[in-house]
From TrEMBL:
Composition bias, Basic and acidic residues: 152-176
Transmembrane segments: 112-129
Domain HTH cro/C1-type, chain residue ranges per copy: 8-42
The protein, known as: DUF4115 domain-containing protein
SMART domains: HTH_XRE
Originating organism: Bacillus aerolatus
Region named Disordered: 140-188
Gene3D superfamilies named in the record: lambda repressor-like DNA-binding domains
InterPro entries reported in the protein's UniProt record: Bact_Cytoskel_RodZ, Cro/C1-type_HTH, Lambda_DNA-bd_dom_sf, RodZ-like_C
Length: 286
């Protein structure tokens, strides 16, 4: 251990500091602080850092670093002075590598630039003159060309073509005659009706109480013959038949409809409870 290292260690211990505490204060690794106390400067990262580390160590333990450098200058390597001549020699070597005389290329550079400029000017003049002449000729030729005449349009033909076609007038079909159910006469218990202009022949019978109903067509074919209680109804499609016969057992409780139209009794239902209704179908008017 050197005298400088012993002096620093004693000052550290007098303040009650460990190497770890000095490391925390100075941010210098503990192994470098231990090397300074032992005088082992070879382990330092570089000679330049020796004096800097000693200065920081001295300030941390309350010693004057200038006084230490003066007292123990024989122990501290003078690394800073040794590095200055070495750096200067390196600068001189670098300077000697710069060429003293200019290169031959720099001597001929102005001549090359002038020659290139002259060639470029000649080429530009040669390129512009023929182009302007050809443009003048093209303009003259365009002025001579005659514009084509527009064809004469015949106004009469145009009007014929543009005339809108007349709309075809649709002929209105005459309305179809409405169905009629009319009384044609009554005798005894028999009442006759005529059905005209009907597209179909459909008979519906509804019982409002209790009644017996029988339905036959003009050929005598029976479609129904039975009692109907209150609320019951029967419907028969007789389309194509020329006549039909409906036998009603109790007219006051029987409602008859022909193609949805209610039949009005010619004979009073209260007076003639048993009635034979004859429906004659006449073809629709042409």
């Amino acid at each position: 251990m050197t005298e400088l290292g012993n002096r620093l260690r004693e000052a550290r211990e007098a303040k009650g500091l460990s190497l770890a505490d000095v490391q925390e204060i100075t941010k210098i690794q503990k192994r470098y602080l231990s090397g300074i106390e032992e005088g082992n400067y070879e382990m330092m990262p570089g000679k330049f850092y020796i004096r800097a580390f000693i200065k920081q160590y001295a300030e941390a333990v309350g010693l004057d670093h200038e006084q230490l450098f003066e007292e123990y200058k024989s122990e501290i390597p003078s690394s800073y002075e040794d590095e200055i001549p070495q750096r200067a020699t390196k600068v001189e070597k670098v300077r000697t590598t710069v060429p003293a005389e200019p290169s031959q290329f720099l001597e001929y550079l102005p001549k090359i630039l002038v020659t290139a400029f002259v060639i470029g000017a000649i080429f530009l003049v040669w390129f512009l003159i023929p182009k302007s002449d050809s443009n003048d000729k093209a303009v003259k030729e365009e002025a001579v060309v005659e514009q084509p005449k527009s064809p004469v349009v015949d106004e009469k033909e145009t009007k014929k073509e543009t005339a809108a076609p007349e709309k075809e007038v649709k002929k209105e079909e005459p309305p179809k005659p409405k169905q009629t159910l009319s009384a044609a006469g009554a005798s005894g218990r028999k009442a006759t009706y005529q059905l005209q202009n009907a597209e179909k022949f459909e008979v519906s019978v509804l019982s409002k109480g209790e009644t017996w109903v029988g339905v036959t067509d003009g050929s005598g074919k029976s479609y129904y013959g039975n009692m109907l209680t209150k609320g019951q109804s029967q419907t028969f499609d007789l389309t194509g038949q020329t006549s039909a016969k409906i036998v009603v057992g109790f007219a006051p409780d029987t409602e008859i409809k022909i193609n949805g139209e209610t039949l009005t009794y010619q004979l009073p239902a209260a007076e003639q409870v048993r009635q034979d209704i004859i429906i004659q179908v006449k073809p629709a008017a042409q």
